[in-house]
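To whoever is covering the structure queue this week,

Two jobs came back overnight. Logging them here so there's a record in the thread.

Job A:
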Amino acid sequence: MKSVQILGCRIQRWQLKMLFYLTTLSLSRFLTEKTHVVTEVDSDTQRRTAVDAWNHNNFLCRNYILNSLDGVLYGGYYYVKTAKELWNSLEKNYKTQDVGVKKFFVGKFLDYKMVDAKSVMSQVQEIQIIIHDLLAEGMDNEPFEVAAIIKKLPPMCRDFKNYLKHKLKELKLEELIVRLRIEEDSRISDAKIVA
């Protein structure tokens, strides 16, 4: 797995990728299991062998996680002894930033302005990227997204915007994008006829 720099907005994606990776290696259980310990007086060789195997696999799991971090984070977490402690520590330190990240994406979405100078579809694609970030943060409200995109349409789309606002049927995001693409293609062909 390539090195991943954990940023507040990327922790969930990183965790999913890392969990999948560790699961394929049959190491994900070490993120939740308690440390297995054997005492000096314990003479059960089968138990000692099981604890040694557990320690070896925990070592692998811990180092797969560490090696997926960038250099600065690696240096800050290499001292953590078990995969479970490392996983929990990363989660605790970076999940606290989630609220701020959600507010950032909401602000970015609300502040986005469409202009006449750019293609409507290229601007819709930019909004879709912001919406994808909102979805990744667990913020899903398609009717709001559709209404907001209609509201953000540039001045040159005023008539089409009014038409969409007064439709009784609620549009899905995909339907809106198809209608916008058709409207833009129509505008382009009308402009060619006039020119």
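Job B:
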Amino acid sequence: MKKFVLLALSLGLVSASFAATVDLNTASVKQLEALPGIGQHRAEAIIAYRKAHKGFKSASELSAIKGISENLVKKLQKDVTVSSGKTEGAKA
């Protein structure tokens, strides 16, 4: 039983390290808010930018949004992705 508990805990830690990335072209406000350094205001600004520019072509475009520094963009690189598919509007 003790081995089973240890195995379950280790699998939980491994799966936590493989957290899903957030797609800038389809993410909702809530999904964007889960990113480090992104609150509701920045999440809404990201979605507004996405709508105005018909989606992101790369994550580096985040630095064009007021309030998002290049330093923050560098920190987010591992947590975000950009799909080439259809973009979605703001979802809560």
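Note for Job B: Helices lie at 2-17, 29-33, 40-52, 70-76.

Please reply-all if you pick these up so we don't duplicate work.
Q.
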